[in-house]
């Protein structure tokens, strides 16, 4: 197979490339007017709420934990079915990690287990919209309100996804978005936090850049130990171009996901994700492999697909089984649904520049590889 089909590929149009060239020629390449314009455009996209951008969602989430004034030992509830940045930042800001399992169907945090895990030390919940399928926001915020908890939505994958017709990020508490190259819109690397008010946004700006406040007379002061998380104008120019196309990218993703449902052979025994064509932005299309019936491993399956010119991703192994987390005391059997998903999930190619013919190609290769791998 000559042309390799990766599991994802960014779409950057010529107008955006031109805008980046203009920034590079302008003499101002770090944070400046493009960052401001990008934040304004994002704010409009999220219903007028304050938005600030950073050089990664990980950085934005770390700052979010500063904004809620997390104290050492404060408990933060999340799941092991996410990118490990979600939990790393909790530990790095002194929080106490409280993991609960996911729902086996939605693969998102199980809100019954969240309620059961709440203690007097619980400060916040971090739900993840895995693959762009939103966590039930009604139930989530009912729980948060009842127990006086903050919510930091890890909506890294949910750009343009909706809940009850409202965009994720346009309501609720803090909402973190990623612009990593693989996400539905990118700035190469980058992220944003949607906040509740200008006071939070002002504090965010300090944490973003060394704790500095600049005064109109040219003087400055530092009153907290901020980090170095600012986005460059080069990245922001890409983000502005991507935001213009986000809704059309997402409709294309929806069409391709629908094609997978139509074309995947049900005989293969793949466990498909929920067929949500209302709320999800179809960031990923992730079946679970029927490993119990297969005589090859997931790794071998991925290699055979690669030989057929098709890239397969794994998002994600259950994070509590990584060495660092095992050393903290986590082990197999603690979160069975996350473990099952983490061990058998595959991410099929899905990106806006794909065509239905590519989906057909993936489905054919899947049939060839899987049908010869059963016991
Ligand atoms: C991508 C991703 C992140 C991290 O985003 P970065 O911009 O790479 O820091 C966090 N959480 C989830 C669920 C993600 O998919």
TrEMBL record:
Gene3D superfamilies, per the entry: Aspartate Aminotransferase, domain 1, Type I PLP-dependent aspartate aminotransferase-like (Major domain)
GO function term, MF aspect, one: transaminase activity
Catalytic residues, chain numbering: 183 (proton acceptor)
Record PTM N6-(pyridoxal phosphate)lysine, positions in chain: 183
Keywords of the record: Aminotransferase, Pyridoxal phosphate, Transferase
One Gene Ontology biological process: polysaccharide biosynthetic process
Pfam families documented for this protein: DegT_DnrJ_EryC1
PANTHER family hit by this protein: DTDP-4-AMINO-4,6-DIDEOXYGALACTOSE TRANSAMINASE, TRANSAMINASE
Family membership: Belongs to the DegT/DnrJ/EryC1 family.
Name of the protein described by the UniProt record: DegT/DnrJ/EryC1/StrS aminotransferase family protein
Species this chain originates from: Iodobacter ciconiae
Lineage: Bacteria, Pseudomonadati, Pseudomonadota, Betaproteobacteria, Neisseriales
């Amino acid at each position: 197979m000559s042309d390799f089909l990766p599991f994802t590929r960014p779409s950057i149009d010529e107008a955006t490339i031109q805008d980046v060239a203009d920034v590079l020629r302008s003499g101002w390449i770090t944070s400046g007017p493009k960052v401001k314009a990008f934040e304004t455009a994002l704010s409009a996209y999220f219903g007028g709420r304050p938005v600030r951008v950073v050089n990664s969602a990980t950085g934005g989430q770390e700052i979010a934990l500063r904004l809620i004034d997390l104290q050492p030992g404060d408990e933060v509830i999340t799941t092991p079915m996410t990118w490990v940045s979600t939990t790393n930042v909790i530990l790095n800001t002194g929080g106490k990690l409280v993991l609960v399992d996911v729902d086996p169907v939605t693969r998102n945090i199980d809100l019954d287990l969240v309620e059961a895990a709440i203690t007097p030390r619980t400060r916040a919940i971090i739900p993840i919209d895995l693959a762009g399928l939103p966590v039930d926001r009604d139930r989530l915020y009912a729980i948060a309100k009842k127990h006086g908890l903050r919510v930091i939505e890890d909506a890294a994958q949910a750009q343009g996804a909706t809940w009850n017709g409202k965009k994720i990020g346009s309501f609720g508490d803090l909402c973190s978005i990623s612009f990593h190259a693989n996400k539905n819109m990118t700035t190469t690397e980058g992220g944003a936090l949607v906040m509740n008010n200008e006071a939070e946004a002002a504090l965010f700006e300090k944490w973003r850049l060394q704790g500095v406040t600049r005064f109109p007379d040219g003087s400055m002061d530092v009153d907290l130990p901020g980090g170095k998380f600012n986005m460059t104008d080069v990245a922001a120019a890409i983000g502005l171009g991507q935001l213009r196309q986000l809704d059309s990218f997402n409709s294309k993703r929806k069409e391709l996901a629908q094609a997978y449902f139509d074309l995947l052979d049900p005989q293969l025994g793949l466990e498909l994700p929920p067929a949500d064509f209302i709320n999800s932005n179809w960031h990923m299309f992730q079946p679970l492999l029927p490993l119990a019936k297969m005589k090859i491993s997931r790794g071998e399956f991925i290699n055979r697909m690669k030989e057929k010119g098709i890239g397969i991703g794994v998002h994600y192994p259950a994070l509590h089984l990584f060495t660092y987390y095992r050393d903290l005391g986590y082990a197999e059997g603690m979160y069975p649904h996350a473990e099952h998903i983490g061990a058998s999930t595959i991410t099929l190619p899905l990106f806006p520049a794909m065509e239905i013919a590519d989906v057909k190609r993936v489905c054919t290769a899947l049939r060839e590889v899987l049908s010869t791998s059963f016991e």
